Amino acid sequence: MSETANPAKKNTRTLVGRVVSDKRAKTVTVLVERRAAHELYGKIVAKSRKYHAHDEQGAYKLGDIVEIAEGRPISKTKSWVVTRLVEKATLV
Question: Is the pTM for the entire model greater than 0.70?
């Protein structure tokens, strides 16, 4: 059996989070929350982390739920790219 000439597709990490800042040009800050068991006590606790993601058109606004994918480093702190809008923010 011969191997196919197509290279294997690289699996990229994707995360879903909420836009908490859109003040910078072409950049949004996305808060990703997850639930994990505490290391010692086993209680389920909420953990969160902020990621800086590239937004070329500036289309995503505060409160939007977006999907981000890991990519090449764009700047010192930015190596994620917004791939799609999951849910638009609602005005209250």
Answer: yes
